Amino acid sequence: MDFFMAKFSKHVALYQKTSYSEITASLWLSLRLQLLAAFIISFIALMAVIGNFGDFPFKLGTPGLVGLALSYASPIVSLLSSFLTSFTETEKEMVSVERVLQYIDIPQEEQCGSVSPHLDWPSHGQIEFEHVTLRYKPSLPAALNNLSFKINAGMQVGVVGRTGAGKSSMINALFRLTPICNGRILIDNLNVAEVAVRELRQSFAVVPQSPFLFEGSLRDNLDPSGGTSEEKIWEILEKVHIRTLIESAGGLDIQVKESSVTFSIGQCQLICLARALLKSSKVKLVN
């Protein structure tokens, strides 16, 4: 608790420093603009008085011209403030444009593959990591360092480790969410790096660490392809012990909000688990 309070206080102090700097700069600018406007008005009034005596080269002529000059000089503060505000907003918008350009320059995933697997791939579900090394950035230490193991078909394997040990990194490497540096990953003796990304990810079923539901009906969330019968869906919901909740909520046609306000986090995880079980895949991953 003390750690979070110290971190919170640090962020609040940083915010107050930046806010104080912004307020100080705004007051400084406002004072300078007001002094500039006062100087211009005073100069016009002084020239109007001095110009009526002798052969002074600068004259405003009639009192009407003096009044016109003063009326144009009075709103100079608001005009300069509007100009500076517009300039600042334009600079902020240009930062947004730069951010969009950075997103455009992000390298795209390679969609094509050199090998086209069979329609029933993976038919057994054998997973093999051979000397796999994964880094999220070249400057960071390896999340997976020369990792090798083999999971035979039909086995249920749990990977246990502390936070940051590389459990989620194994799934990222398997789904090619992050490219590996060395080694290879084989599924039924087929290198996943040679399979198209779309075909690869469609061949597996996964329950993510943070459950995600799409906005739409619950039926579409459980069976996006629409190829599963209603009896099969209810059977899977019974297996994950959430059928009673779905029936009381209105059935499979209830609308789910993307913000997941319809169900709790635990219920969303059970729905994601049911979605993974409905998918006929030999490889199922639960993070």
From TrEMBL:
The chain crosses the membrane at residues 35-53, 65-84. GO terms for cellular component: membrane. Residues 144-285 form the ABC transporter domain. GO terms for molecular function: ATP binding; ATP hydrolysis activity; ATPase-coupled transmembrane transporter activity. This is ABC transporter C family member 13. Keywords: ATP-binding, Membrane, Nucleotide-binding, Transmembrane, Transmembrane helix. Pfam families: ABC_tran. InterPro entries: ABC1_TM_sf, ABC_transporter-like_ATP-bd, ABC_transporter_C-like, P-loop_NTPase. It comes from Dendrobium catenatum. The lineage of its organism: Eukaryota, Viridiplantae, Streptophyta, Embryophyta, Tracheophyta. The gene is ABCC13.
